[in-house]
C-alpha cells in the first residue's frame, strides 16, 4: 500500500472506531450518576471522623467536564470489541479469507483480557487509595478534586486493560507472519524490563506487591504469547518444508519424460 492508501485506511478505521465510541459514550451519559458513585467509592469509603475524605468540585463547569470524562471511559469499554478490531484490521490490512479467523480469534481473546485488565486495576485501586490517604496528617481533611481523582482512576484502569491486550497483539502479528517468535525470544530482557516499567507506572501503591497485580499477569501472558509464537514458527517452517519437498517432486516428475525421450533417441 502507498502512503496515501495507508492514510486513507487509517482515516476509515478511525471513523468506524469513533462512531462506536460515540455510541458507547451516549450510554455512558445515561448511566453517569451510578458510574460516578462507583468510581469514587474506593476513596470515599476511607473517610473517618478523624480524617474525612471527600471528592469535591472547585468550579461551576467541572461537573460537566467530569461527566464527559466518565461517559467517554464507559464508551471505550462498551465499544472495545469494535475499536480493538479496527486496530487489528489496520495493522494487518487485506486479510485473505483463511486469515479472517485470526481476526476473530484476536477479538475473542483481546476483549476479555481488556475487560479483565480493567477489573484487575479495580482490584488494585483500593490499595493505592489507602496508601495515599494514609499520608494525610492527623487533624486534617483529605479533599480530592474530582478533576484530579477521576482522570487518575480512569487512566489507571485503562492502563491495566491495554497492558493485558499487548501480548494478544504480539500473537496476532506472529500469526500474520509479521513478527517471528525467535525475535521475541531474542529481546526477552527488554520485554521483561518494559513489563516492570508498565507495572510500576500503572499500579502505584504502598509496596512492591501492588506492582505485581499488573506485572505478574502481564509476564505470564507474555510467556504464553512467546510459546504460541514459537509453536507457530515451527508449524509454518514444517509447512514450508513440506511444500518445498512437494514442489521438488513435481519438478522431478515433469523432467522425467524429457530425460526418457533423450535416452531413447
TrEMBL record:
Similarity annotation: Belongs to the TatC family.
Matches recorded under InterPro entries: TatC
Organism name: Yaniella flava
Transmembrane segments: 14-32, 66-91, 103-125, 156-176, 188-205, 211-232
Membrane topology: Multi-pass membrane protein
Region (Disordered): 241-265
HAMAP family the record matches: TatC (MF_00902)
Gene for this chain: tatC
Highest taxon in the source lineage: Bacteria
Protein known as: Sec-independent protein translocase protein TatC
Composition bias type Basic and acidic residues, residue spans: 241-251
Function: Part of the twin-arginine translocation (Tat) system that transports large folded proteins containing a characteristic twin-arginine motif in their signal peptide across membranes. Together with TatB, TatC is part of a receptor directly interacting with Tat signal peptides.
Amino acid at each position: 500500500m502507498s502512503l496515501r492508501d495507508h492514510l486513507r485506511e487509517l482515516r476509515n478505521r478511525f471513523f468506524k472506531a469513533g462512531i462506536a465510541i460515540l455510541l458507547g459514550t451516549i450510554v455512558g451519559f445515561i448511566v453517569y450518576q451510578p458510574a460516578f458513585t462507583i468510581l469514587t467509592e474506593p476513596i470515599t469509603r476511607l473517610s473517618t471522623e478523624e480524617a474525612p475524605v471527600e471528592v469535591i468540585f472547585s468550579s461551576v463547569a467541572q461537573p460537566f467536564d467530569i461527566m464527559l470524562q466518565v461517559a467517554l471511559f464507559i464508551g471505550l469499554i462498551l465499544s472495545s470489541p469494535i475499536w480493538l478490531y479496527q486496530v487489528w484490521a489496520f495493522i494487518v490490512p487485506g486479510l485473505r479469507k483463511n486469515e479472517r479467523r485470526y481476526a476473530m480469534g484476536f477479538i475473542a481473546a483481546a476483549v476479555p483480557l481488556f475487560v479483565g485488565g480493567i477489573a484487575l486495576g479495580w482490584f488494585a485501586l483500593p490499595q493505592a487509595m489507602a496508601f495515599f490517604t494514609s499520608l494525610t496528617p492527623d487533624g486534617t481533611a483529605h479533599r480530592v478534586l474530582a478533576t484530579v481523582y477521576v482522570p487518575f482512576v480512569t487512566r489507571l484502569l485503562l492502563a491495566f486493560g491495554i497492558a493485558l491486550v499487548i501480548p494478544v497483539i504480539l500473537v496476532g502479528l506472529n500469526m500474520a507472519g509479521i513478527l517471528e517468535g525467535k525475535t521475541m525470544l531474542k529481546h526477552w530482557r527488554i520485554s521483561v524490563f518494559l513489563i516492570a516499567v508498565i507495572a510500576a507506572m500503572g499500579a502505584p501503591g504502598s509496596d512492591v506487591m501492588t506492582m505485581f497485580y499488573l506485572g505478574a499477569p502481564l509476564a505470564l501472558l507474555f510467556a504464553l504469547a512467546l510459546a504460541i509464537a514459537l509453536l507457530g514458527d515451527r508449524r509454518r517452517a514444517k509447512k514450508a518444508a513440506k511444500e518445498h519437498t512437494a514442489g521438488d517432486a513435481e519438478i522431478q516428475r515433469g523432467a522425467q519424460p524429457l530425460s526418457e525421450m533423450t535416452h531413447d533417441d
